[in-house]
Amino acid sequence: MTTDPIEPLDPDIDESYADDIDDGPYVDENSGQVASHVGRDMVQNVHNWLGRYQAARELSDAFVQETIATFVERVYGPGGLSREAAAGILRERRHVLLVADPGTGRRTAAVGLLGGVPTPRREIPIDDDEQRLLPVDEVPWSSYGRCAYLLTVPPDSRNGRLRELLIAYREAVEKRDSYLVVLLDQKILERPEDVPGFTVLTVTAPLPKELLSRLLDDQGAQLDVDTLLRTPPLPAMLESATPAQIARLSRRIRAAANDPQEPLAEIARKAVKAYQNWDEELVDWFGRNTDPRTRLFLIALAFLQGGQATNVLHAMEKLAEKLAEPANVRGGIGAPGIRQLAKNVSARIDDQHRIFFTLPSYDVAILRYVHGDHSKAFRTRLWSWASDLPMRRGGSPNARIAGRVASAMLAVTLALPGADAPEVRTLTERWWGYQTLRPLVVDLMTAVAMSPEAGPAMRGRLNQWAVQSGSLTLLCAVAAVCGGALADAYPQAVLTRLNNLAGRGIDAVTDGVVAAVRSLWERPLHRQATLHRVVDWAAGQDQRHDTGLRALAAISETRDRAGFLLAELAGDADLQAGLVHAFVLLFTAEGPQGELREALFRWLNAAAEEPVYEDLITDLMLRAGGTGQGASSRFARMSDLLYDWQPLARDAEAPAARDMRDRLNERLHRANPLVAA
After folding, report:
1. Which top-level group of life is the source organism from (predicted)?
2. Cα–Cα nearest to 154, from 165, 170, 144
3. What is the pLDDT of residues 544-583, one digit of tens each?
4. CB 3.0–4.6 Å: which of 25, 154, 158, 592 could bond 132 by disulfide?
5. Is it true that the peptide bond before 233 is cis, omega within 30 degrees of 0?
């Protein structure tokens, strides 16, 4: 296995400029790629967008209701059906193949169908790394009875027998008395109408003007939306626009319409320029403004818009130092001051001395332009400077500034063509050492990994780091991300990355993996798959063995959790076989110690209360004890464990435990080959 060289964390900077940045209100609207109104606390911006991604993935009631409330009517086929009529077909026939091309708003159309089924809803995950459907027996089916499921067949599906697999999914859903909507592209499966048990529906894309009008519906009180949408150049923008492009345009219109007194023609012009990332204007601006001080002020303001103008100036001078610009760039009476700089970068300073761009969505457009127009080395230094912005001398980091930087990172990542996220590593390694910033780092990494734009690249990068990186900080961060919301959307991918981390054999990383397993165990949908992976680790003879044992202890921390674990074991022969191998290794060595020893005591406590668990544990111990050489020693260690769990001195206090110990010990004694001989 190859690893990256260990890269030491940057030490705290000696001269901090976050001390001088106030904690006053920040800009109420981040008009970048991924924001509308997000409130005064910019730390919440990344968290809010992660929440939106989660709600969409989980098909939460709130998300479905919001989708239905803003649903633009489109035609379902065959026969020109309305949404209500198509939803009626789903209610009646239970299993629907919805055939439509990607990029046509088909997922919204599917949610429109599911909105007509008054039950819990779930999206069925896929094998994200392989871009194929999971085997039916690996799907985390809901344990809440009747449910409505959405399954999206990947556009580049690698399922060799898709027709048979869809039938298996339908049969599994049918057994659960549930509903199923399958989204697929016509190119993937010829003659979908021949798949038995499904009703095939098609759906058209929404009309662009109607969709944009609906997305701006709440602006009607202050904006003549109908007239605006007829105002050039907006009509030309709507021709052949996809639903995703229209949604992005709607955000740009919102950003451009801050001043209701501004003429509609100007709002339309600015919205289109913002949609086009102000590319022509920025090319022209950088051609006219060659002064490094002005350029650096523009970049600093792109990160700190809405803050105190003097703080932006101070941050700009630190950026000049980071980039090793000449000393005269950093100040002096002959250099342009704040107001001149503001004028030069199309910004305004309000009565509270806060500074804002006058052009909508200009901050993210600037960062996007800079990323595409400069070298990788420049970008590395830029984000190194940005990661230092929240740091303060002798105190905890400025969480508000950290939130603003993270918001900029998320926004520019999603705005870049061929979205990727290499600079996320810079923030992660700089901030992970601060407990107050760790939740923000996890939210940022997770939001990028779940985003439609950068998600595939980020999920691939998480796996690359898990396998190759030599950065302890980065590895621990990946483990934390795998224990969070990403698992609900991509459970198979998360377990793959945790498996790679478990194989690194690094104590601190193992701690993170165990914590992630504990978090996954709290989610009933993930218990079976998580337990299979943990038992595989414990049954192996590589570095994952100890991780598996520690994880078994972690998910048995209480008597209730031990009971959950035994319940999963009781009905799964493969899990039992894996645990037998783990016990062989465990009792061939010195036997269970520490946390695992206490966890096994809780297993025995649960078994003393439930006879079926007594039979399970007895069978596991007998099979493990008699496997291979050294059986007598293993049986002796098992017997010692039983007497440590229920000492003779406490027999009068716990007669049920005493009797179980004696029964189990007698069976171990009879199975011991040395005694039998």
Report:
1. Bacteria
2. 165
3. 999 999 999 999 998 888 989 999 999 899 999 999 999 9
4. 158
5. yes
Helix (H) or strand (E) holding 606: helix 594-609
Question: Closest Cα to residue 389, out of 441, 445, 314?
Answer: 314
Answer for the pair 217, 115: CB distance below 8 angstroms, yes or no: no
Q: Would you state the structure tokens that stand for residue 236, as one six-digit string?
A: 């030309």
Half-sphere exposure of 492 (CA within 13 A, CB side): 16
What type of residue is 372? G
- CA–CA gap between residue 285 and residue 376 (Å, rounded): 22
Show the tokens assigned to 156. Answer: 């580049």
Contact 255, 274 (CB under 8 A): yes
Whether residue 148 contacts residue 121, with contact meaning beta carbons closer than 8 Å, is answered with yes
Phi-psi region of 125 (alpha: psi -120 to 50; beta: other; left: phi over 0): beta
The rounded percent of the chain whose pLDDT value lies above 90 is 70
CA distance 193 to 172: 20
Give the Cα-Cα-Cα angle 179, 182, 186 (nearest 5 degrees): 150
What does the alpha-carbon distance between residue 514 and residue 493 come to, in Å, rounded to a whole number?
A: 17
Tokens 């406590």 -> residue: 605
Burial 617-629 (b: 16+ CB within 10 A, else e): bbebbbbbbbbee
Task: Judge whether 538 and 508 are in contact, CB under 8 Å.
Answer: no
Q: What is the CA radius of gyration of the chain?
A: 30
355 within 8 A of 314, measured Cβ to Cβ = no
Query: Does the reported pTM lie above 0.85?
Result: yes
Asked if residue 196 lies in contact with residue 168, where contact means CB atoms within 8 angstroms, the answer is no
As given in the structure block, the two tokens for residue 555 are 């998910």
Token pair in block for residue 73 = 């009517």
Write out pLDDT tens, residues 335-358.
678 899 999 999 999 999 999 999
**DSSP state string for 557-573:** SSHHHHHHHHHHHHT-H
DSSP H or E stretch at residue 149? strand 148-152
Exposed/middle/buried for 119, CB within 10 Å: 0-12, 13-18, 19+?
middle
pLDDT reading at 4 higher than 80: no
> What is the C-alpha separation between 138 and 165, in angstroms, rounded?
13
CA atoms within 13 A on the CB side of 93: 17
pLDDT in tens, 33-67: 333 333 334 446 788 889 889 999 889 999 999 99
Judge residue 460's burial from the number of C-beta atoms within 10 Å of its C-beta, 0-12 exposed, 13-18 middle, 19 or more buried: middle
What pairing do the DSSP bridges indicate for beta strands 179-184 and 95-99? Answer: parallel
Starting at the edge strand found earlier in the chain, the sheet holding 148-152 runs 76-77, 199-203, 95-99, 179-184, 148-152, 121-123
Q: What is the pLDDT of residue 171?
A: 97
Give yes or no for a contact between 128 and 449, defined as CB atoms under 8 angstroms apart. no
Instruction: Look at the block and give the residue holding tokens 């799964």.
Output: 572
